[in-house]
Each structure stands twice: as C-alpha cells, then as structure tokens.
Amino acid sequence: MLAALLGLAGCAHEEPILIEDTKYFEGEMPADFSGFWARDYARSDNINTVLQNAAYEIGKRSGRVGPAGPMASERDMSRFMPLARLVELITRTDELTISQSEHEILVERRDDFSLMCAFFDGVAKPTDSPFGKETCGWDGDRLISLHELPDGLRVIHRFQISENRQQLRVITTATSNTAPMPFTISHYYWRIQKAPGKFECIETLSMKRVCSTGELEILR
Amino acid sequence: MSAKHRLAAASLTALVIAAISHSAMAQSTTSLVAATSDGTELNVTIPVFDPGIPDDPSVYRDMQVFPRIREIEAKLMPFLLRETLVESQQWGAVRVAIEPDTAAELQLFGTIVRSDGEWLDLRIRAVDAAGTAWFDKVFSSQANEEPGVGEGDTGTPEFQAIYTEIAAELAAFRDRMGNAAISNIKGTSLILYASELAPTAFSGYIEESEDGTLRLLRLPAREDPMLVRIETIRNTEFLITDTVDAKFREFNADLARTYRVWREYRRKIGGYEAWNVRFAEDKPDDSPRGSWESIKHLYDAYKYDRVTVQEQDRLAVAFNTEVTATVEAMETRVAELNDWVEQGSLEWNYLLEELYELETSMLEQGNP
User: Fold this and answer.
1) Given CB atoms, is A203 within the 8 Å cutoff of chain B?
2) Model confidence over B121-140: pLDDT tens digits?
3) Which residues contact B195 (CB under 8 A, 6 or more apart)?
4) What confidence tier does A122 reach under pLDDT thresholds 50, 70, 90?
5) In sequence order, what are the beta bridge partners of A129?
6) Contact call for residues A160 and A169 (beta carbons, < 8 A)
7) Closest residue of A to B293, CA-based?
8) A/B interface, count of CB pairs below 8 Å
9) A positions 159-198 inside 8 Å of B (CB)
10) Do B290 and A207 touch (CB under 8 A)?
11) Sign (positive/negative) of CA torsion A86, A87, A88, A89?
12) Which residue of chain A is at minimal alpha-carbon distance from B250?
C-alpha cells in the first residue's frame, strides 16, 4: 500500500501543458481507470492549505514580504481567488464513475458534465465548440484532460492510478491570463465496489428508464 | 417438346409457383403489378437511402451523426417518399428495395445529407432505365409546427414538405416527356431485365449511345414465348419486392412512434443549443475580465454545452436500445427474402438460357 501511495505522490505543481506528443498512444490504452471511486478526504488537499501556500508563493515571486514572510498583495489575491473558487467548485464531486472501452474513457461526475476522452487509432479526438475545447492525452500512464475556454481560461485534470489499482489521484489545475499563477489541487479516491442492484435497468426513449428483476428484452 | 425441354419448363413453373406461395405466406397486402411495357405510368424503385455516414468515425460527434440512427432513417425515409408518390396517383407501382435495380423504369437514389431534427437535407438523384438523369439535387426542409395529437404515429409529418417537393419535381420532369419517351423507358427496362436473365436471347435489342444512355432498337413480339416467361418471372420477383415493401411498411409503423420521440428530443436539444448560445452571449455587464463572475460565466457556458452534447448521446443510446429488436427482426426477414430472390434469379437465368438453346436448336432443326 505504501508503495502505491508513494507512486502517486509528487506531481501537484507540475507545469500542466498538453504537448502534441501526449495525444497519441500505440496499442492498448496506457492505463485502465474503470470503476467506481469515492473521495479519500484524509489524503486529499485541503483548499485552505493550498490557498495559503499559493499566497506565500505569489508573494515570493513578487518579492513582497510581510511580518510572517512572503505574502501576496490584495490585488494579486483578488486576481487569484476566482481561479481558486473555480477549482473548488468543479472538484466538489466526491464520487467518480469511470467507464473505459478500447477507444473511449468517460468520467462521470456528480452535478457536473462528464469528462470524455475519445481516441481513434490511438489519436485523441478533441471536442470543439465556440464555448471551449476538450483535448485528451497521455503523459506516460497518466491521463490528461485539457479544457480550453475563451479568454485564456484553461482547466486541466490529470488522472493517475496506483499500481495496485485501488487508488486514484486526480490533480486539477486552472490557469488564466489574468491570474498571477495557476491554482492546483489534488484529490485522492478509493476504489469502491458497488453491489449489483436487484433490478436490471435499461434506458429507452419513449418509456424512459425500464427496470426488471429478470433479464430485460424489448419486444415488439 | 423434348423431355429435357419439358423438365426445364416444369422446373420454371415450379419455381414461379413456389415464389408466389412464398410471397403469399409472407402475407403481403400489396397486389401484383404487371411488368409489361404497356401504359404511360412509370414504375418507380426507391433503394434504401445512403445514410450519409462519414467514413471517419472521429467526426461523428462534430457532425452530430449517430450512425445506427442514420441507418434506420435510411430505411424509413424511402418509405415516406414512396407514400407521397403513391398518393399523388401519377406513378405506377412505387417500391422500396434493399438494393438498386439496374432494370428499374425509374429509380430514385437518396442520400441523407443532414438530419438533425430541425432540418432535413436529402440529395435525390432520379435516373430512368435508359440512363437519363432527370435531376440530381439536394432538397431541404425545416420541420414545420408540431402536428396535432393522434398524428404522431404516422411517421414524420413535420418533413412532409420535402417529399412533396421531390414528388412535384419528378412529376414536372415526367410531364415534359412525351409518351414515346415513356414507352422507350418502359421498353428499355423490360429488355434490360430480360437480357440479365437470358442474355443470349435479348442481346441486340438496345444500344448504348455516346453519352452513355441506352436506346431501344426494337421490341420482341408480344407473344414471344421467351418474353412471356420473362414477364412471368418479373411479376413474381415484383411480388417478392412487394413483400419486402410490406416489411418496410410494418417497420415504419413499428418505429414511427419511437423515431418521432427521438426527433422531438433532437428538436429540444436544438432549443437547448440556442439557449446555450444566448447564455454565452449574455455576459454580466459589470464583471471585469478575470473576475469570479466572468470566469464562472465562461465555465457555465462550457458546462451547459457539454451537458447538452452528452444528453444527446444518452438519448441516441436509449433510442438504439428501444428499436434494436425491431430493426434486427426486419433486417433478418428482408435478408431472407433477398437471398431467396438472388438464389431464384440464378436458377431462372440457367433455365431460361437452356430453354432458349433448346428452342433455337428445335427451330434450326425444323427450318434447315
């Protein structure tokens, strides 16, 4: 277990840039994230601690020192806080459901849209719209999901699974042209087993969700 | 008549009888339509449309193409066009077919260019048996107002305008043609069909012009025994086609309601997309760039867009789940009928060639 935890450590402040090479992979996907995941609050970052560290870092970079050491100016903090609020908002989900096929990875998040990475012949296929662009890629066995929004706003999620496949680490970073530095937060998730329900359900169009205790088959 | 000759003739009759019995068992409600070259009403064949699915699967999402649903639409839409042509009472038999028919009097090839619930764009190419292209154009129609309750199970009446426009274009072209041209098409069609089954007997009746179209040089006598057999076989084959056609009718009736729900959802999704655009444009006036309000607005616009796209994907899966059993049953039945026709054609071809050989040699023996 310790090895697994160590294996996940130490990438919270990496420069989150998706370079061209990371959009490709050959053969099978480098990692399998499929399963149900629940937030491990004990190991996940505390938002206040991350904020304090960031304020220190911004102060250090700007050379502004207060009585307790480097400290960000009010102006810098007012430009930085929106990013922090955004990351706090979009990482609130405490459960993830990840399904993975040969070509696609779908990360379902409660109260938010699903992250969707499609690869065709190992090449990531971005989804593009006037509202933003989602591009996926791999950095070794880490899955990267990059969201580029207007005004230079970017959100990056990095997924890494432990060697024993029981823990998942998700590092979320937001950057913008107006903030003095990126804001990054790291969350850990435990794999959970969901017992199969008593009902088998399928989604239909005209009858909505149809459930049965036996095997389901739509007959005409 | 020699023993071999009788045996061949008996086999042919048996095949024809078997074909009719087979069709009867299929409980076709359509009636036999004569294959003769008489009359001025052209028979129309509409092969299942090209679903217009891009070769590159990576663009499906961007183009909002759901391949399985497009394949179903490619089977439903020819039937709706057929119904419009039949109701116009300006055509002979109008049939939906799985495969193109090289000998069809008039054939309508369709490709779905766009079908997103709000808009339908169909490319239609009309070609007659002589090889003349009547037109090749894209018809476009926006969904009209939702029909009243009770009309929902009859297909997609919101797009009736497109089928009416195609029918009008066809009728206008046909009206500009003289009866001689129509007769030429019908005769060419019959000889094309005959020469496929008995090439030796029917070569030399048509010639190809420089522009690639076909010209009918002459027609065999009406009482030509070989032509009579050909017409019997063609009528039998039409019975099978009509049985396939009846399957399309059932298919349409089975799927119309679900397809209609899908189409309504697609339309609603279109409404959501329009709302998303308005939301994105409606930025808070007093929020400076980089502020919380500004960033939240940007992210929410993106989020709503992604949720809309994913909801549409979910609905497409739900649609497929609901109709899969119907589609598979229909495809299996049509494939069975198609196989049967193909097998029969091979045997008919062999028997007719053999009969022609026998008759020719008997004539030669009688008239040295």
Assistant:
1) yes
2) 999 999 999 999 999 999 99
3) B201, B202, B203, B205, B206
4) confident
5) A132
6) yes
7) A82
8) 105
9) 176-179
10) no
11) positive
12) A220
Distance from C-alpha of A68 to C-alpha of A56, rounded to nearest angstrom: 10
Determine whether the interchain pair A132/B280 forms a contact, defined as Cβ–Cβ distance below 8 Å: no
- Residues of chain B with Cβ-Cβ distance to A207 below 8 Å are 322
Model-wide pTM > 0.80:
no
State the average pLDDT over residues A184-202. Answer: 88
Q: What angle do CA B59, B63, B69 make, to 5 degrees?
A: 100
Under DSSP, the state recorded for A80 is H
> Are A186 and A171 contacting, i.e. CB atoms less than 8 angstroms apart?
yes
Helix (H) or strand (E) holding B106: strand B106-115
> What single-letter DSSP state applies at residue A10?
S
Closest CA to A109 of A186, A28, A193, A170: A170
**CA B157 to CA B260: how far, in whole Å?**
9
How would you classify the pairing of strands B94-97 and B44-47?
parallel
Q: Does A120 touch chain B (CB under 8 A)?
A: yes
Task: Give the span between the Cα atoms of B202 and A50, in whole angstroms.
Answer: 88
Share of chain B residues as helix, strand and coil, in percent rounded to the nearest 5: 60, 10, 25
Q: What is the spatial distance between Cα B45 and Cα B96, in angstroms, rounded to a whole number?
A: 6
For strand A209-212 and strand A69-70, is the pairing parallel, antiparallel, or unpaired? unpaired
Q: Which residues of B touch A134 (CB under 8 A)?
A: 306
Q: Comparing A95 with B333, which gets the higher pLDDT? A: A95
